[in-house]
């Protein structure tokens, strides 16, 4: 198949990743009759997805298959796949948007939080002969689709977008951007790349959720500190310490989870998959997310130390005041006794 400027057949996979309000244990998931493993390309090292539902919907007269997948304990993915007669047709952006909206509707059935999700599109081209570089005559459309942009892009922006790519064999090519990717493979082997994109988006979702959760709880601690004065410190300190303990628990669990996932990815042993994940991580700014979260976690330690110090100082001050009052009472008592003693002597 020659990559002349005519209709190019392909496939579009759109998925939305969200966090469910329901946390399932492994035992609970195993008890679901409909549960089965999704195709998995990385062995037992990387956690496999579980399929928890499928359905078919009609969009613009075309039947689209939807698959609902889950990562333990609460990450849900709604994935839609469609065949396209002309993958570079400009109307495909609107079609993609409708697929994504349907994915979100399906996620709501699984109690997924509306406020935070990750949407991604993978445009797949296969069944061709020769180098995929011949498809770069569509570079303007590839860049526009990856950025979900209908307006013509500047040539430099197009070149910059196409640079973020990876090749394994002579005849394959994967171009990566923030909102989507183009995968060219003459053998139509798209499964492993698709799973890697879903793993990365699930990781990005966890970063965003953790960052937001830390931000909200830190604001709560700061508000409690502002509301306190010396008299209220004892009353508020228990509430503050409880919030800080929750933050520290979140820190421990999240850091272990993130480090475990990224370590497992590096242990895959598949050069292409490991390189692909590194490229996605760079595009998704995982290093910046980690730094941002670690800064907030360090702030938690500072807040906890400050609270402990203030509480100890306040406690010492209260004990000193109690001791002083005790001495005053004792002195008054002795004074009264002395007065009575002199009164008796005067008689």
From TrEMBL:
Keywords: Membrane, Transmembrane, Transmembrane helix
Domain of life: Bacteria
Regions that span the bilayer: 324-343
Protein name: DUF155 domain-containing protein
Organism: Candidatus Azambacteria bacterium GW2011_GWA1_42_19
């Amino acid at each position: 198949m020659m990559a002349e400027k005519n209709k190019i057949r392909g496939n579009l996979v759109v998925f939305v990743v969200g966090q469910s309000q329901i946390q399932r244990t492994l035992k609970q998931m195993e008890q679901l009759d409909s549960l089965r493993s999704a195709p998995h390309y990385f062995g037992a090292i990387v956690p496999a997805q579980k399929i928890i539902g499928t359905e078919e919907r009609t969009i613009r007269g075309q039947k689209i298959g939807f698959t609902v997948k889950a990562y333990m304990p609460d990450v849900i993915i709604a994935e839609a796949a469609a065949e396209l007669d002309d993958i570079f047709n400009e109307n495909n952006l609107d079609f993609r948007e409708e697929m994504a909206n349907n994915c979100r509707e399906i996620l709501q059935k699984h109690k997924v939080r509306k406020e935070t999700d990750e949407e991604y599109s993978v445009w797949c081209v296969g069944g061709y002969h020769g180098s995929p570089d011949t498809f770069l005559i569509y570079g303007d459309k590839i860049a526009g689709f990856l950025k979900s942009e209908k307006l013509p892009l500047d040539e430099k922006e197009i070149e910059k977008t196409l640079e973020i790519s990876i090749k394994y064999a002579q005849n394959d090519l994967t171009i990566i951007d923030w909102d989507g990717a183009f995968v060219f493979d003459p053998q139509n082997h798209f499964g492993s790349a698709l799973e890697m994109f879903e793993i990365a988006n699930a990781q990005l979702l966890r970063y965003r959720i953790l960052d937001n959760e830390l931000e909200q709880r830190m604001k709560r601690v700061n508000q409690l500190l502002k509301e306190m004065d010396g008299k209220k410190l004892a009353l508020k300190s228990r509430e503050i310490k409880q919030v800080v303990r929750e933050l520290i628990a979140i820190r421990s669990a999240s850091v272990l989870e993130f480090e475990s996932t990224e370590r497992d990815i590096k242990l895959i042993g598949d050069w292409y998959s490991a390189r692909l994940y590194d490229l996605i991580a760079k595009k998704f700014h995982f290093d910046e997310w980690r730094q941002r979260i670690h800064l907030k976690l360090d702030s938690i330690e500072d807040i906890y130390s400050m609270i402990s110090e203030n509480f100890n100082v306040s406690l010492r001050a209260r004990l000193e005041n109690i001791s002083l009052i005790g001495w005053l009472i004792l002195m008054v008592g002795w004074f009264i006794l002395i007065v009575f003693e002199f009164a008796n002597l005067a008689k």
